[in-house]
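Interim report, section 4.2 (structural modelling).
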Amino acid sequence: MFDKSRLKKINDFLWEIPKTFRSDMRVPARIYVSEKMLNDALNDRSMEQLVNLATLPGIVNCSLAMPDVHEGYGSPIGGVFATRIPEGVISPGAVGYDENCGVRLLTSPYFFDEIRPRLENLATEIQRNVPSGLGKGHKVKLSSKELDKILEGGARELVHQGYGDQEDIENCEANGRLDWADSSEVSERAKIRGADQVGTLGSGNHFLEIQKIDKIFDPAAAKAFGLFNGQAVIMIHTGSRGLGHQIATDYIKLMLKVMPKYGIVLPDRELACAPFNSPEGQKFFKAMACGANFAWANRQMITYYVREAWQKILGNKDLKMLYDVAHNIAKLEDNLLVHRKGATRAFPPNHPEIPEKYRSVGQPVLIPGSMGTASYVLRGAEEGKESFYSTCHGAGRIMSRHQAVKTLSGEKITEHLEKSGIVVRCYSMRGIAEEAPQAYKNIDDVAEVVHRAGLSKKVARMVPAAVIKGE
Amino acid sequence: MRAQGDSLWGLFESAVFGMMEILKPNVSAGAPAVEEIVALEAEDTTALLIDFLNEVLFFAQARKEMYNKNDCF
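Predicted structure of the assembly:
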């Protein structure tokens, strides 16, 4: 447990570990959290990992943790930092193994009550149409050439092939494609793992939910986003699957090998890195962009399958894309290389990278809750500048998967959810236990902290009606 | 996941089976045995374990295979 007395309170929602805490820190470390949530943040190794981020060569201002912070590989999940380019470092471990794990929200024109009679059928059809299991392939197995097109073209490539419409691209972060992606920097192994995984949900905390909007906090922003109280929406949470995992694996190994050449010494080898302008840094940046493009294509293909299921049950494909945003990524923003791992970009109003129709209110920020709990739509705000325009990404674990499986019963949790009127579709009871709401922080508390800290502002809250999970 | 063994070999074995358990619980026995020789070099045992698990994960995912005590090691 991290010693609370070593933290300096900046304000009710911001605490600091001063640079003097450890001699190898280059900048202070800061955490956005309320007094109420502070103990959860101090309970695991996440503060030590946040301090480790503060030692990275080229880091500017401070390392940052969001209120949903918890221990991860190298960097805490909920960790954000920026390095000066070109000499600052890029670290695969600080992006995460699931590159561009992210969230997409589809809106329907219906009140939830209108689709309620068909909810069970809809959930069953979506589960049938969207493959979910870890490593389990589906209908599409891409050739090497086809996969390269996805790696360099992202969701945009799939829309060009007919798996979506123009609005899907316009409303996606980076329009669904990072243009510096270079598929020649992605290993054959990664390509083998990705060849049959476009359009697959995956396991762990990935899910699909049919949700109902139960609260509007900001009517003007909700209107701009096309949201209304009682509306049925669909949330998709998944990432780059085995392909992204293999890219991270390959480049962590490469970075470990080359660090001595660049004189980089780290307190934790899991943060293995190289200067951004080095050949290895550039290779990873291009490969990571392929992983990100693959993830956007994955969510696009899933969108296509969900629309097919929707049409089969409800007779139309009226699902519009509100937004799609990455949680695990490194990007050049304002002449800095911003790493976000388990954190969401939240650009303020009038930012040129926001779709024109949202520009006056700010970027949509999509925050999934834990299974059976609420999710949020927020919007970016100017005060977010101090966090490199970043905010939280979810509820954040307080219990390891192992502990959850040991102490919680998937059957009982399913029974409880179904008694609350939530339809559950999951092949594995173990998966249910791992992702039980008890294993996570309270999403309402997390959203409240980022709202009050000004990192992003609450627009709407959704409650789950049907949960479709990977194995 | 927490893995333990009374030797390096035992630790690696436990870690692989633990990972398999996470990937696909309740794997049924009886599938034909497969054999793969894995040669890895790493600067210490932690790195070697990670590389080894990544290697097994790749085979499991690429070939849609699962490994249990009857057909592994």
